[in-house]
Design a protein that fits this description.
This protein is an alpha+beta fold. 21% of the residues lie in helices and 37% in strands. The protein has a domain at 2-110 and 158-262: outer membrane lipoprotein receptor (LolB), chain A. It is built from 7 helices and 12 strands. The radius of gyration is 22 Å and the shape is globular.
Length: 334
């Protein structure tokens, strides 16, 4: 699935320097071009310490590499709030799709505040029974209930900074034919809206310069458009939307990604009433194929962490069968 990973990466990078959607008519600041306004918004990203956000993706992709057929079709969404000053962060993740014939539906909510990090798995459903059985080893006891993740901290969950685009003063934008379309309300923020086409050659070169090469062939003949939002008063970007149509044999189809944020506010994150607690020792047991344990009755000194050392294994390159065998081996050592 390396080809699928490349297209997702390419469209993300292309989109993460483009933004928007909307209508309305209000003149841009005197003497500033659409490119000037976008660049100013990108340079002001350091001001973002909080946000309410929504991210949505939709993919319908197929490819054939050396006779191996790949297919990805589905939707994903991420909605939440983040505040790096207070440490309040929360998000809801939803996935519904199919990859190479295997379907997945999942819903997960995470909250983090001064009291800790909490998670609730509402659903994780795979169409493949073997995959579902393996997943159930990890999450069956935690579905539908709030669980405190005592091995994580609120700082680990801060996502406000993840919306910042890799941009420095003097950098080029991978656009052509940038047009100002008016203004629109984006999650409560009045924003300028621009539309543009992605310059594929320039985007490929930018990715190459950032160590993300290998996309030139994939972007050949691709049609990628972008919509751009920047806050009228705050002069910070408030979102982007990209639509890509790929035409290569190795990867063809459509992919859309929209990310919206209000960088002037964040919501309070309440501590849920949780029924379970997951410790670092519990996680180790789960990774070893066993059930989570009551840590008050668990002697950590008897736990041989070296038995679970996977540094010598190529985890990412393993098949499901090889990964299961590794987990069985670790469980046997217990």
């Amino acid at each position: 699935m390396k080809v699928l990973s490349k297209i997702v990466l390419a469209t993300l990078v292309g989109g993460l320097v483009a933004f928007g959607a909307g209508c309305g008519q209000e003149a841009l600041p005197a003497g500033k071009s659409p490119e000037d306004v976008i660049k100013e918004a990108l340079l002001n990203q350091k001001e973002i310490t909080k946000a309410v956000f929504e991210v949505n993706a939709n993919a319908d992709l197929k490819g054939d590499v050396d006779g191996e057929k790949n297919e990805l079709k589905g939707t994903g969404s991420l909605k939440g709030t983040s505040n790096s000053d207070s440490g309040d962060n929360s998000f809801v993740l939803a996935l519904d799709g199919k990859m190479n014939g295997e379907a997945l539906k999942a819903n997960l909510e995470v909250r983090a505040n001064k009291d800790g990090v909490f998670a609730k798995v509402e659903k994780v459903e795979f169409s493949n029974k073997d995959t579902q059985d393996m997943v159930d080893l990890f999450v069956a006891d935690y579905k539908g209930v709030w669980t405190k993740l005592s091995f994580a901290s609120a700082e680990d969950m801060n996502v406000a900074g993840t919306f910042q685009i890799d941009y420095a003063e003097g950098d080029e934008l991978p656009f052509k034919n940038i047009e100002y379309k008016g203004t629109k309300d984006i999650l409560g923020i009045k924003s300028y809206f621009f539309a543009a086409k992605i310059d594929n050659e320039k985007l490929a070169q930018m990715m190459e310069d950032k160590g993300q090469g290998g996309s030139e062939e994939m972007l050949k003949d691709a049609e990628i458009t972008a919509e751009i939002y920047t806050a009228v008063n705050e002069k910070i970007f408030t979102g982007f939307s990209i639509s890509a149509k790929l035409k290569q044999t190795e990867m063809n189809g459509t992919f859309t990604l929209t990310s919206l944020l209000n960088p002037t506010k964040s919501n309070n994150v309440d501590t849920p009433k949780y029924d379970k607690e997951l410790t670092e020792e519990d996680m180790m047991m789960l990774m070893g194929g066993g059930a989570a344990v009551d840590t008050t009755e668990y002697d950590a000194s008897m736990y041989d962490e070296s038995a679970y050392d996977t540094s010598a294994y190529d985890i990412e390159g393993m098949t499901d069968e090889e990964l299961q065998a590794l987990m069985d081996e670790a469980a046997a050592v217990q």
